[in-house]
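Model it.
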Amino acid sequence: MRHRLASYTQQSQRYVSLKEFNYITPATINDKPEWEGKYHQMYRAAHRLYLEMLDAGIPAEYARYVLPNAAETRLVMTMNARELIHACSLRLCLRAQWEIVELFEHI
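Modeled.
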């Protein structure tokens, strides 16, 4: 969201209830079986609590507060070619977060 010459549209967890919950798992966690199980267990527990809250009549916009930061989302990014070239030059840097690098490799 740091590129000001771009426009963004992101799926809202406020209005879309997440009956199916997808989340991102970094490779560094997948590489450590002793942490991978704990990681997935925590996400499953958060999703169960979220669904219980929805069943109890709590609106999705409030139930979403229990969802962890790695919840998958959908995003549409629009920018002109000049800004895209600039964004790629910044986001394909080795210091950029792996998710951003992967995204811009696909672009």
